[in-house]
Amino acid sequence: MNIPLIDLKSQYKKVDRQVLRKLKEVLSEQRLIMGKYVAALEEGISKYSGVPHAITCANGTDALILSLMALGIKEGDEVVTTPYTFFATASSIALLGAKPVFADVDADFMNIDPLMVEAAITSKTKAIIVVHLFGKVCDMRSISRIAERHGIAVVEDMAQSLGARLWGNMCGNLGDIAALSFYPTKNLGGIGEGGMVLTRRDDLAKRVRMLRVHGMDEVPYLHQLIGINSRLDEIKACALVEKLPHLEGWNKKRIANATFYNRHLKELPLVLPKMESPGSHVFHQYVIQTEKRDQLREHLQTKGIGTGIYYPVPLHLQPCFAYLGYKKEDFPVSEKAALTSMALPVYPELKPAEKEYVVQSIREFFA
Predict the structure, then answer these.
(1) Residue predicted with more confidence, 167 or 367
(2) Which of 31, 60, 233, 240 is 20 to 30 A from 183, alpha carbon to alpha carbon?
(3) Which stretches of the chain are assigned E, i.e. beta strand?
(4) What is the H or E stretch that residue 120 is in?
């Protein structure tokens, strides 16, 4: 068999006619920037997530930057976040002149550890960026208490977790502001780059709407703030509007695939992702851990099974962040995860025979 880590072609086949029809309409009308499909997407995500303000932007990295800008993060400020995440989480902090301050993750879910967060807070700390890694919601109850105690904001990096729920509330409702990505490989992936900021706060929503269009308010060419150019185009939005109604079903299939793996791999010497409360994990990635990661990955490659390593180098060990002064062994849980973690195919279109083949191939390796 040939089983890729992610199969975008299979998913697109289910919506291609509808998307092409919308694309033809957009191109024939030549209303290309922030038109009716951008508005429909914002309304649809707001309704789906239960967050009153959903504001599109050009990509997920910009969504993080806009979130921090709306909070007033600036040079000299500190923002606490995880070293075990995609680069943009920390680079968005640094690009605004603020200092990323890392806090290690917990061993169970590889999400930021609340105890480590509190230990990292100083008088310069202005925000915490939590990452709902691989689709698993963080311990937001503990993190929210810490943030309230210190009078700082919480940003949710929910690039991988749209649709995940905690206490009946979906991601995006759990902090002050949230950043979402529509990169093609995400659970709701577009036909190119795309992003969104979600917030319950009217003041932050107003600032983000201005900041994404060079700081303009309702009056053209009158700039209230120094913003950036981060608008979503209609071509990207129309495809996302077509895909959004399928998201809940796709997430359920991801959860079912992960449940299958957990049931059939539990006797093997692997650390499997824990499935806590229902709906708290939407499995953007299904990530296992093993000391024999590289050997297992090579074996699966010979079997035609795609895998991925997220993330091979923790952020505190990235060359560009050397100026922060961190060193090896500062964040041991993150460093171990980087050496032992591997993602298996979990996309919604995975067939029963393909899941069986993945399990059989892993069992064969350990046998």
Answers:
(1) 367
(2) 31
(3) 53-57, 78-81, 99-102, 125-131, 153-157, 165-166, 169-170, 177-181, 195-199, 286-289, 341-344
(4) helix 114-120
- How far is the C-alpha of 182 from the C-alpha of 160, rounded, in Å? 9
Q: What is the pLDDT of residue 323?
A: 98
Which pLDDT belongs to residue 276? 84
Asked if the model's pLDDT at residue 31 lies above 90, the reply is yes
* Phi, psi angle pair for 139, to nearest 5°: -75, 80
- Provide the 3-class DSSP secondary structure of residue 341: strand
Q: What does the alpha-carbon distance between residue 143 and residue 156 come to, in Å, rounded to a whole number?
A: 11
The domain made up of 8-103+110-245 is a member of CATH 3.50.30.10: no
Burial class (CB in 10 A: 0-12, 13-18, 19+), 59: buried
Please state whether beta strands 153-157 and 177-181 pair in parallel, antiparallel, or not at all (unpaired).
Answer: parallel
pLDDT band per the 50, 70, 90 thresholds, residue 366:
very high
Domain ranges of the chain: 8-103+110-245, 246-366
Query: In whole angstroms, what is the distance from residue 144 CA to residue 139 CA?
Result: 9
DSSP per-residue codes, 155-215: EEE-TT-TT-EETTEETTSSSSEEEEE--TTSTT--SS--EEEEES-HHHHHHHHHHTBTT
The CATH superfamily label for domain 246-366 reads: Aspartate Aminotransferase, domain 1 (3.90.1150.10)
Query: What pLDDT does 277 receive?
Result: 85
Give me the pLDDT at residue 35, please: 95
Identity (one letter) of the amino acid at 86?
Answer: F
Q: pLDDT by residue (tens digit) across 110-149? A: 999 999 999 999 999 999 999 999 999 999 999 999 999 9
